[in-house]
Amino acid sequence: MPTASVPWREAWARAQLGPDGFYRRADGTPSRHFATSAGYADVLAAPLVELLARTDRALGHPPRLDLVDVGAGDGSLLAALLARLDRHAPVLTGRVIATAVDVRQRPPDLDPRVRWVRGAAPPAVHAAFPDGVRGLLLALELLDDIPCDVVEVDPDGRLRTVLVDPRTGDESYGEPPSDADRAWLDRWWPLSSPADRAEVGRTRDLALRGLVDAVSAGTVLVVDYAHRREERIGTTAGTLTGYRDGHRVPPVPDGGCNVTAHVALDACAAALEGGCGRPVRTAVTAQRAALQGLGLDAALPTPAVARSDPTAYAAGLARASRAGRLLDPDGLGAHLWLVAEVPGHAPGAPDASVRN
Cα–Cα–Cα angle for 121, 115, 146, nearest 5°? Predict the structure, then answer.
Protein backbone atom coordinates (compact mmCIF):
# COMPACT_ATOMS: atom_id res chain seq x y z
CA MET A 1 0.00 0.00 0.00
CA PRO A 2 1.59 3.31 -1.05
CA THR A 3 2.57 5.79 1.63
CA ALA A 4 1.40 9.37 1.20
CA SER A 5 4.13 11.95 0.88
CA VAL A 6 4.11 14.62 3.59
CA PRO A 7 6.10 17.79 4.30
CA TRP A 8 9.62 17.09 5.54
CA ARG A 9 8.87 18.63 8.92
CA GLU A 10 6.11 16.09 9.60
CA ALA A 11 8.06 13.07 8.33
CA TRP A 12 11.18 14.15 10.20
CA ALA A 13 9.32 14.51 13.53
CA ARG A 14 7.84 11.04 13.16
CA ALA A 15 11.21 9.57 12.18
CA GLN A 16 12.89 11.00 15.28
CA LEU A 17 10.28 10.55 18.01
CA GLY A 18 7.48 8.38 16.60
CA PRO A 19 6.81 4.88 17.98
CA ASP A 20 9.59 3.44 15.79
CA GLY A 21 11.62 6.64 15.68
CA PHE A 22 15.39 6.93 15.83
CA TYR A 23 15.48 8.13 19.44
CA ARG A 24 13.08 5.38 20.57
CA ARG A 25 15.32 2.59 19.27
CA ALA A 26 17.89 0.75 21.31
CA ASP A 27 20.63 1.83 18.88
CA GLY A 28 19.54 5.49 18.87
CA THR A 29 22.52 6.66 20.92
CA PRO A 30 24.04 9.64 19.06
CA SER A 31 27.68 8.70 19.75
CA ARG A 32 27.17 5.45 17.84
CA HIS A 33 26.15 7.29 14.69
CA PHE A 34 28.02 10.61 14.57
CA ALA A 35 30.61 12.69 16.43
CA THR A 36 29.31 15.20 18.97
CA SER A 37 31.00 17.70 21.24
CA ALA A 38 29.24 16.07 24.20
CA GLY A 39 31.07 12.86 23.29
CA TYR A 40 34.21 14.58 24.64
CA ALA A 41 32.61 15.25 28.02
CA ASP A 42 35.84 14.52 29.92
CA VAL A 43 37.58 17.43 28.16
CA LEU A 44 34.54 19.67 27.81
CA ALA A 45 33.87 19.54 31.56
CA ALA A 46 36.58 22.04 32.53
CA PRO A 47 35.45 24.95 30.31
CA LEU A 48 31.79 24.33 31.09
CA VAL A 49 32.49 24.34 34.83
CA GLU A 50 34.25 27.66 34.28
CA LEU A 51 31.15 29.00 32.50
CA LEU A 52 29.01 27.71 35.38
CA ALA A 53 31.29 29.46 37.88
CA ARG A 54 31.01 32.74 35.97
CA THR A 55 27.24 32.40 35.97
CA ASP A 56 27.27 31.68 39.70
CA ARG A 57 29.30 34.83 40.40
CA ALA A 58 27.00 36.93 38.24
CA LEU A 59 23.95 35.59 40.08
CA GLY A 60 25.47 36.46 43.45
CA HIS A 61 26.14 32.85 44.52
CA PRO A 62 22.52 31.75 45.05
CA PRO A 63 21.74 28.91 47.49
CA ARG A 64 20.52 26.81 44.53
CA LEU A 65 22.45 26.81 41.26
CA ASP A 66 20.72 24.90 38.46
CA LEU A 67 22.74 22.97 35.89
CA VAL A 68 20.41 21.64 33.20
CA ASP A 69 21.28 19.58 30.12
CA VAL A 70 18.45 19.47 27.57
CA GLY A 71 18.77 16.56 25.15
CA ALA A 72 21.09 14.89 27.64
CA GLY A 73 21.42 11.55 25.82
CA ASP A 74 23.01 9.13 28.27
CA GLY A 75 23.71 11.86 30.85
CA SER A 76 27.49 11.49 30.55
CA LEU A 77 28.09 15.22 30.17
CA LEU A 78 26.36 16.05 33.46
CA ALA A 79 28.18 13.18 35.18
CA ALA A 80 31.51 14.56 33.94
CA LEU A 81 30.60 18.06 35.11
CA LEU A 82 29.72 16.81 38.59
CA ALA A 83 32.97 14.86 38.77
CA ARG A 84 34.89 17.99 37.75
CA LEU A 85 33.07 20.03 40.40
CA ASP A 86 33.91 17.42 43.05
CA ARG A 87 37.63 17.70 42.24
CA HIS A 88 38.09 21.38 41.45
CA ALA A 89 35.12 23.38 42.74
CA PRO A 90 33.75 21.61 45.83
CA VAL A 91 32.36 24.94 47.06
CA LEU A 92 29.86 24.75 44.20
CA THR A 93 28.99 21.07 44.47
CA GLY A 94 26.64 21.39 47.42
CA ARG A 95 24.59 24.10 45.70
CA VAL A 96 24.41 22.62 42.21
CA ILE A 97 21.21 20.82 41.22
CA ALA A 98 21.96 18.82 38.06
CA THR A 99 19.00 17.94 35.84
CA ALA A 100 18.95 15.95 32.60
CA VAL A 101 16.06 16.31 30.15
CA ASP A 102 15.66 13.69 27.44
CA VAL A 103 13.00 11.60 25.70
CA ARG A 104 14.78 8.39 26.66
CA GLN A 105 14.72 6.39 29.87
CA ARG A 106 17.21 7.20 32.61
CA PRO A 107 20.40 5.14 32.21
CA PRO A 108 20.66 2.70 35.13
CA ASP A 109 24.27 3.54 36.03
CA LEU A 110 24.01 7.36 35.92
CA ASP A 111 25.31 9.39 38.88
CA PRO A 112 22.39 9.37 41.36
CA ARG A 113 22.80 13.10 41.92
CA VAL A 114 21.47 13.77 38.40
CA ARG A 115 17.70 14.35 38.31
CA TRP A 116 16.16 12.78 35.21
CA VAL A 117 13.20 14.47 33.52
CA ARG A 118 11.72 12.51 30.67
CA GLY A 119 10.14 14.48 27.89
CA ALA A 120 10.81 16.77 24.96
CA ALA A 121 12.11 20.28 25.39
CA PRO A 122 10.94 22.87 26.18
CA PRO A 123 7.69 21.59 27.80
CA ALA A 124 9.63 19.22 30.05
CA VAL A 125 11.86 22.06 31.24
CA HIS A 126 8.89 24.24 32.15
CA ALA A 127 7.27 21.32 33.99
CA ALA A 128 10.42 20.51 35.96
CA PHE A 129 11.14 24.15 36.84
CA PRO A 130 7.80 25.92 37.41
CA ASP A 131 9.69 28.88 38.93
CA GLY A 132 12.28 28.86 36.19
CA VAL A 133 15.87 27.66 35.83
CA ARG A 134 18.35 29.79 37.77
CA GLY A 135 21.80 28.93 36.55
CA LEU A 136 23.21 27.35 33.38
CA LEU A 137 21.09 25.57 30.77
CA LEU A 138 22.92 23.54 28.12
CA ALA A 139 21.58 22.53 24.72
CA LEU A 140 24.36 20.73 22.88
CA GLU A 141 23.54 19.42 19.39
CA LEU A 142 19.85 19.77 20.18
CA LEU A 143 18.50 22.30 17.70
CA ASP A 144 19.82 20.46 14.64
CA ASP A 145 17.39 17.67 15.61
CA ILE A 146 14.39 20.03 15.67
CA PRO A 147 12.41 19.20 12.49
CA CYS A 148 11.82 21.99 10.01
CA ASP A 149 10.25 22.40 6.60
CA VAL A 150 12.35 22.11 3.45
CA VAL A 151 11.64 24.37 0.49
CA GLU A 152 12.86 24.41 -3.09
CA VAL A 153 12.49 26.64 -6.14
CA ASP A 154 10.62 24.63 -8.78
CA PRO A 155 11.46 24.67 -12.54
CA ASP A 156 9.01 27.57 -13.05
CA GLY A 157 10.80 29.68 -10.44
CA ARG A 158 8.13 29.24 -7.73
CA LEU A 159 9.07 28.53 -4.14
CA ARG A 160 7.48 25.25 -2.98
CA THR A 161 7.44 23.13 0.17
CA VAL A 162 9.18 19.80 -0.41
CA LEU A 163 7.21 16.61 0.31
CA VAL A 164 8.85 13.27 1.10
CA ASP A 165 7.79 9.64 1.10
CA PRO A 166 8.78 8.43 4.61
CA ARG A 167 9.57 4.91 3.38
CA THR A 168 11.83 5.74 0.44
CA GLY A 169 12.95 9.34 0.82
CA ASP A 170 11.54 10.16 -2.63
CA GLU A 171 10.60 13.83 -2.89
CA SER A 172 7.97 15.86 -4.69
CA TYR A 173 6.64 19.41 -4.65
CA GLY A 174 3.88 20.59 -2.35
CA GLU A 175 2.24 23.94 -1.68
CA PRO A 176 4.06 27.27 -1.45
CA PRO A 177 5.47 28.01 2.01
CA SER A 178 3.48 30.08 4.50
CA ASP A 179 3.89 33.84 4.61
CA ALA A 180 5.84 33.49 7.88
CA ASP A 181 8.22 30.94 6.36
CA ARG A 182 8.68 33.08 3.26
CA ALA A 183 9.49 36.12 5.42
CA TRP A 184 12.09 34.06 7.33
CA LEU A 185 13.65 32.90 4.07
CA ASP A 186 13.74 36.40 2.62
CA ARG A 187 15.70 37.60 5.65
CA TRP A 188 17.91 34.63 6.44
CA TRP A 189 18.22 32.37 3.37
CA PRO A 190 16.99 33.95 0.12
CA LEU A 191 16.60 31.61 -2.85
CA SER A 192 16.27 32.56 -6.51
CA SER A 193 17.19 29.91 -9.08
CA PRO A 194 15.38 26.65 -9.93
CA ALA A 195 16.50 23.71 -7.72
CA ASP A 196 17.79 26.06 -5.00
CA ARG A 197 16.67 24.66 -1.64
CA ALA A 198 16.88 25.47 2.06
CA GLU A 199 15.67 24.44 5.48
CA VAL A 200 13.31 26.94 7.14
CA GLY A 201 14.72 27.62 10.61
CA ARG A 202 11.65 29.15 12.26
CA THR A 203 10.99 26.00 14.30
CA ARG A 204 14.50 26.19 15.78
CA ASP A 205 13.99 29.88 16.62
CA LEU A 206 10.78 29.01 18.47
CA ALA A 207 12.33 26.02 20.27
CA LEU A 208 15.22 28.10 21.56
CA ARG A 209 12.87 30.88 22.62
CA GLY A 210 10.95 28.28 24.63
CA LEU A 211 14.14 27.20 26.40
CA VAL A 212 15.09 30.77 27.23
CA ASP A 213 11.58 31.42 28.51
CA ALA A 214 12.15 28.58 31.00
CA VAL A 215 15.15 30.40 32.52
CA SER A 216 14.38 32.96 35.21
CA ALA A 217 18.00 34.16 35.34
CA GLY A 218 21.27 32.74 34.11
CA THR A 219 22.97 31.56 30.95
CA VAL A 220 21.75 29.46 28.04
CA LEU A 221 24.44 27.78 25.96
CA VAL A 222 23.61 26.30 22.56
CA VAL A 223 26.28 24.38 20.64
CA ASP A 224 25.49 23.01 17.22
CA TYR A 225 26.29 22.26 13.62
CA ALA A 226 25.42 25.71 12.34
CA HIS A 227 25.95 28.38 9.71
CA ARG A 228 25.66 32.13 9.30
CA ARG A 229 23.79 34.09 6.65
CA GLU A 230 26.91 34.92 4.64
CA GLU A 231 27.69 31.21 4.45
CA ARG A 232 24.15 30.34 3.35
CA ILE A 233 23.99 32.87 0.52
CA GLY A 234 24.87 30.95 -2.61
CA THR A 235 24.37 27.57 -0.94
CA THR A 236 21.91 25.87 -3.26
CA ALA A 237 21.56 22.33 -1.91
CA GLY A 238 20.62 22.92 1.74
CA THR A 239 22.19 20.88 4.54
CA LEU A 240 19.60 18.15 5.21
CA THR A 241 21.34 14.80 5.67
CA GLY A 242 21.32 11.53 7.60
CA TYR A 243 23.81 9.66 9.79
CA ARG A 244 23.99 5.96 10.54
CA ASP A 245 26.81 3.98 12.17
CA GLY A 246 29.30 6.80 11.75
CA HIS A 247 28.55 7.36 8.08
CA ARG A 248 26.70 10.07 6.23
CA VAL A 249 23.70 8.56 4.42
CA PRO A 250 20.70 9.84 2.44
CA PRO A 251 18.11 11.32 4.84
CA VAL A 252 15.34 8.77 4.57
CA PRO A 253 12.83 9.58 7.37
CA ASP A 254 11.98 5.98 8.28
CA GLY A 255 13.54 6.01 11.78
CA GLY A 256 16.60 4.07 10.69
CA CYS A 257 18.98 7.03 10.67
CA ASN A 258 19.39 10.35 12.40
CA VAL A 259 17.97 13.12 10.23
CA THR A 260 19.65 16.47 10.80
CA ALA A 261 20.27 19.87 9.25
CA HIS A 262 22.53 22.77 10.20
CA VAL A 263 21.10 25.51 12.41
CA ALA A 264 20.85 29.18 11.47
CA LEU A 265 22.14 30.35 14.86
CA ASP A 266 22.26 33.99 13.78
CA ALA A 267 18.51 33.80 13.14
CA CYS A 268 18.03 32.14 16.53
CA ALA A 269 19.95 34.95 18.22
CA ALA A 270 17.87 37.60 16.50
CA ALA A 271 14.66 35.79 17.48
CA LEU A 272 15.75 35.81 21.13
CA GLU A 273 16.63 39.47 21.21
CA GLY A 274 13.47 40.47 19.41
CA GLY A 275 10.88 38.10 20.83
CA CYS A 276 11.46 37.17 24.48
CA GLY A 277 9.92 40.20 26.13
CA ARG A 278 13.22 40.65 28.02
CA PRO A 279 16.48 42.29 26.94
CA VAL A 280 18.29 39.00 26.30
CA ARG A 281 21.87 39.50 25.15
CA THR A 282 23.38 37.00 22.73
CA ALA A 283 26.80 36.23 21.34
CA VAL A 284 27.61 33.76 18.56
CA THR A 285 31.15 32.49 18.09
CA ALA A 286 33.04 29.46 16.83
CA GLN A 287 33.53 26.65 19.34
CA ARG A 288 37.31 26.84 19.02
CA ALA A 289 37.41 30.50 20.12
CA ALA A 290 34.78 29.97 22.81
CA LEU A 291 36.62 27.06 24.41
CA GLN A 292 39.96 28.85 24.27
CA GLY A 293 38.30 31.82 25.97
CA LEU A 294 37.26 29.48 28.77
CA GLY A 295 40.78 28.14 29.22
CA LEU A 296 40.88 24.98 27.08
CA ASP A 297 44.06 24.14 25.20
CA ALA A 298 45.59 21.11 23.54
CA ALA A 299 49.05 21.49 25.04
CA LEU A 300 51.13 18.32 25.23
CA PRO A 301 52.62 17.24 28.57
CA THR A 302 56.33 17.94 28.94
CA PRO A 303 58.86 15.14 28.38
CA ALA A 304 59.86 15.43 32.04
CA VAL A 305 56.45 14.06 32.98
CA ALA A 306 57.13 10.96 30.88
CA ARG A 307 60.21 10.23 33.00
CA SER A 308 58.65 10.95 36.38
CA ASP A 309 55.12 9.64 35.85
CA PRO A 310 54.58 7.61 32.65
CA THR A 311 50.90 7.00 33.49
CA ALA A 312 50.21 10.71 33.88
CA TYR A 313 52.12 11.38 30.65
CA ALA A 314 49.96 8.91 28.72
CA ALA A 315 46.81 10.46 30.21
CA GLY A 316 48.07 13.92 29.23
CA LEU A 317 48.67 12.81 25.67
CA ALA A 318 45.17 11.37 25.46
CA ARG A 319 43.66 14.55 26.88
CA ALA A 320 45.62 16.74 24.43
CA SER A 321 44.42 14.61 21.53
CA ARG A 322 40.78 14.85 22.60
CA ALA A 323 41.06 18.58 23.28
CA GLY A 324 42.58 19.00 19.83
CA ARG A 325 39.50 17.43 18.27
CA LEU A 326 37.21 19.86 20.07
CA LEU A 327 39.39 22.75 18.91
CA ASP A 328 39.94 21.55 15.34
CA PRO A 329 38.87 24.46 13.08
CA ASP A 330 38.03 21.98 10.32
CA GLY A 331 36.04 19.71 12.63
CA LEU A 332 34.22 20.15 15.93
CA GLY A 333 36.00 23.46 16.51
CA ALA A 334 33.92 24.92 13.68
CA HIS A 335 30.67 24.27 15.56
CA LEU A 336 29.02 27.49 16.65
CA TRP A 337 28.22 28.56 20.20
CA LEU A 338 25.30 30.81 21.04
CA VAL A 339 25.51 32.20 24.57
CA ALA A 340 22.35 33.94 25.77
CA GLU A 341 22.51 36.03 28.93
CA VAL A 342 19.08 36.08 30.54
CA PRO A 343 18.26 39.24 32.55
CA GLY A 344 19.36 39.30 36.14
CA HIS A 345 23.07 38.87 35.47
CA ALA A 346 25.79 39.65 33.00
CA PRO A 347 28.32 36.78 32.98
CA GLY A 348 31.46 37.02 30.94
CA ALA A 349 30.60 35.20 27.73
CA PRO A 350 33.24 34.00 25.28
CA ASP A 351 34.37 36.63 22.79
CA ALA A 352 31.82 36.96 20.02
CA SER A 353 32.53 37.17 16.33
CA VAL A 354 28.87 38.00 15.75
CA ARG A 355 27.04 40.32 18.13
CA ASN A 356 23.35 40.84 17.50
Answer: 15
